[in-house]
Amino acid sequence: MFQTLIVAVLAMISPSNEQELDTHQRLIEAAARMFVEQGFGSAKVRDIVARAGANIAAVNYHFGSKEGLYAAVIQYHSAQAIAELSQHAGDDGVRGPEACLRDYVCTFLQRLLTDTPQFTMSKLVAREMVDPTAAFGLIIEKFIWPQYQALHAIVRSIVGAKPSDELVRRCCLSVVGQCLYYQFARQVVARLDPEFGYGPADVERLAEHIVAFSLGGIHQSARTRTGDAQQSSCGDVDGR
């Protein structure tokens, strides 16, 4: 039911003039900060409109409800993130898949760990993972799934030779898991590796490490799977 409501609300969001567009955008930006800081349940509409410098009725006018505003925040930041990822990590037909993986991981880490425009969305997703709302399905559909598909295509190209879907999925989740650890376990990393920082140069070095580690694992997994398949084939021949 919530998903149906979200689709209807997003369909009617269409500011008709510059002033309305400005209010619309200020509400999204203010709401994003409030939802990250307090969570969807605790964030109050009156506090959001106050931070946005808008009228109390503006949320209903522009988004229909608090749920509609939350959906608009997800939609807006998801679109920004996917566009950024497509720009920096897409395969343009010239670079190889390993270069695409480096760009993907670097873009992903910058979003997770540094103060970029998409840092807000990563924090919102992190909150949803810990305390999911009814909009979690929308986050999966609009934010997580498109990124997973892009990574899936990259990893499939790296593995080559008709890889199994299971192998590609495991490799994709292993890449993502390494990146997410540095976000969710930030305080643990600080204790275990006091010299590690979260500046741009640190993040770039971390990206290089994760890519190198992942490529080694992907290639080894592919070789192991190929060897298992060959052994199985030989066993079938010997058994006849």
Distance from N terminus to C terminus (CA atoms, Å) equals 57 Å
- Helical percent range? over 70%
CATH fold-level name: Tetracycline Repressor, domain 2
pLDDT < 50 runs, ≥5 residues: 1-14
- Give the ordered list of helices and strands: HHHHHHHHHHH
How would you state the average pLDDT, rounded? 84
Number of contiguous helices: 11
Structural class: mainly alpha
**CATH domain class:** Mainly Alpha
Beta-strand percentage? under 5%
The number of E-state strands comes to 0
Spell out the CATH superfamily: Tetracycline Repressor, domain 2
Number of domains: 1
CATH hierarchy: architecture: Orthogonal Bundle
Q: What value does the Rg take, in angstroms?
A: 22 Å
What is the makeup of the main sheet? none
Overall geometric form:
elongated
Word description of this protein:
With 240 residues, the protein is mainly α. Helices cover 79% and strands 0% of the residues. It has one domain: Tetracycline Repressor, domain 2. Helix 8 (136-159) packs across helix 9 and helix 9 (165-184) runs antiparallel to helix 11. The longest helix is centred in the last third of the chain and has 40 residues, at 200-239. The chain is elongated, with a radius of gyration of 22 Å.
